[in-house]
Amino acid sequence: MTAVATAAVTAMAVPAGAQAATATSTSTVATATTTAAAEDVDYDTWQADCQALMNQALPYLKQRIAATKPGEKQAIVLDIDNTTLETDFGFSYPQPANKPVLDVAKYAQDHGVSLFFVTARPGIIAGVTDYNLKYVGYKVSGLYVRGLFDLFKDVAAYKTAQRVDIESKGYTIIANIGNSATDLSGGHAEKTFKLPDYDGQLS
């Protein structure tokens, strides 16, 4: 890993700032109650809130996977920072997996669902990010990182475009999981699950 990539990964582990965990689709809205106010969020609180939402996601995924149509290629799209990896709590490399999300992802990948990761991370750390995801147990069917020109685009629009690209490869995106509104807006997923970011405290 280059010194530049190492510095980039380290910089991304600095806490930023995170809202109630919610799961939404065009027809339903589910809410996981957060257990702490924004100003006193800690690791245990975050994990409890993530688990509460994934307790809603797993039954949905089990039902949707069981209803796979003949020839249908199912996919889940996941954000990375503070969604699949413990970015603001995992001050090491490789960063640890966010266990509640990993458990759900493992169920999906063990049942033939492809996992695609769409992140605002820059392309310079694509290699170390891919390694990190695989190291902690995710099967990476595709990793989308921002190229030079993507850095000047709206993040939500960039992430929506990547989901469109995944659909263009013949996949049905049965779930989209992230911790920011920019991860989930723009459609192109049957159901979305919003992890807590406590009003922006988590990146």
Automatic annotation (TrEMBL):
<dbReference type="InterPro" id="IPR005519">
    <property type="entry name" value="Acid_phosphat_B-like"/>
</dbReference>
<dbReference type="InterPro" id="IPR023214">
    <property type="entry name" value="HAD_sf"/>
</dbReference>
<dbReference type="InterPro" id="IPR036412">
    <property type="entry name" value="HAD-like_sf"/>
</dbReference>
<dbReference type="Pfam" id="PF03767">
    <property type="entry name" value="Acid_phosphat_B"/>
</dbReference>
<feature type="signal peptide">
    <location>
        <begin position="1"/>
        <end position="20"/>
    </location>
</feature>
<keyword id="KW-0732">Signal</keyword>
<protein>
    <recommendedName>
        <fullName>Hydrolase</fullName>
    </recommendedName>
</protein>
